[in-house]
Amino acid sequence: VHSSETGQAIKQIFEKYVIMEDVTVKENPGYTCVLSLYGSTGSKEVFSGEAGSIEMSSPRVYPDGKLFFVDGQNVEDMNLIKNGKPVDIQFFNNLRLEQGIPLHGMDFNDSVNPLESNLQDFISWTKGCYIGQEVIARLDTYQKIKRFLKGVILESSISDDDLKRINQNQVNPIITTDGSTEIGRITSIGYSFQLNTSILMTRLEKGNEKTGAPVEIVIGDSRHTGEIVDLPFVKGKNG
């Protein structure tokens, strides 16, 4: 399962490293989709339909939700979802930010070391050789990580006008401690309904990542003060 825009890149990786094996690589986007459930309701209360139409695949449990693999056609044709409602991309973005989940293409990509993106849970420290294993192990052993993915909670919300300018690339928001020198890069901006203010995910340079440190977000002529926090912003029932 991969992000929607990475299919070709992953296919090329297989084609590069599969040499002697009898392997055929193809995508199957019409068969499955990924649903993220937010809340405490279990899958039996959310889904209905014929037995076997839902395939659980060892879902990763997030603070307040789970991921399920579902037959995409059945979702539409069989009206499987009986309890709950779909949300738009902005609402989903706010929820995943609250839970500290980085998004490929925004908060990280294949040029960023996974240790710099809080992806340690997806790394095996006991498996033998795999692509990138030596680099990751060396960075971890010698503590050579140079950037850290952290959160920022603002004291005031970013205005809709400023968000529009950011989305249209009319202005580039920066994170600083002195009003001018950047200490990292802002990767995602959203709004926390539970914290009732704007939240940001940012990759901070080593030495500037201290939790609780005050920062300033500069968006053109607008300035917002905030505080560096550990992810996730909002902890769920599981921790």
* N/C terminus separation: 26 Å
Instruction: Characterize the overall form.
Output: globular
Q: Which whole number gives the mean pLDDT?
A: 81
Q: Give me the side-by-side strand order of the main sheet.
A: 6-9-10-5-8-7
Helix content: 10-25%
Note the beta-strand portion: 25-35%
User: How can the largest sheet be summarized?
Assistant: 6 strands, antiparallel
Radius of gyration: 20 Å
Structural class: alpha+beta
Write the H/E string, N to C.
HEHEEEHHHEHEEEEE
* Count of alpha/pi helices: 6
Low-confidence residue ranges: 56-65
Number of strands: 10
Task: Name the features.
four-stranded antiparallel β-sheet; 6 helices; 239 residues; alpha+beta
Please characterize this protein's 3D structure:
A hairpin with a 2-residue loop joins strand 3 and strand 4 (65-71). This protein is α+β, with helices and mostly antiparallel strands and 239 residues long. The radius of gyration is 20 Å and the shape is globular. The strands form two sheets. A six-stranded antiparallel sheet has the order 6-9-10-5-8-7, with helices on one face. The two termini are 26 Å apart. The chain is built from six helices and ten strands; from the N terminus they run αβαβββαααβαβββββ. The chain is 20% helix and 26% strand.
List the helices and strands and how they pair.
Elements: H1 7-17, E1 32-38, H2 43-46, E2 54-55, E3 61-62, E4 65-71, H3 72-77, H4 89-98, H5 133-141, E5 147-154, H6 160-167, E6 174-176, E7 184-192, E8 197-205, E9 214-219, E10 222-229
Antiparallel strand pairs: 1-4, 2-4, 3-4, 5-8, 5-10, 6-9, 7-8, 9-10
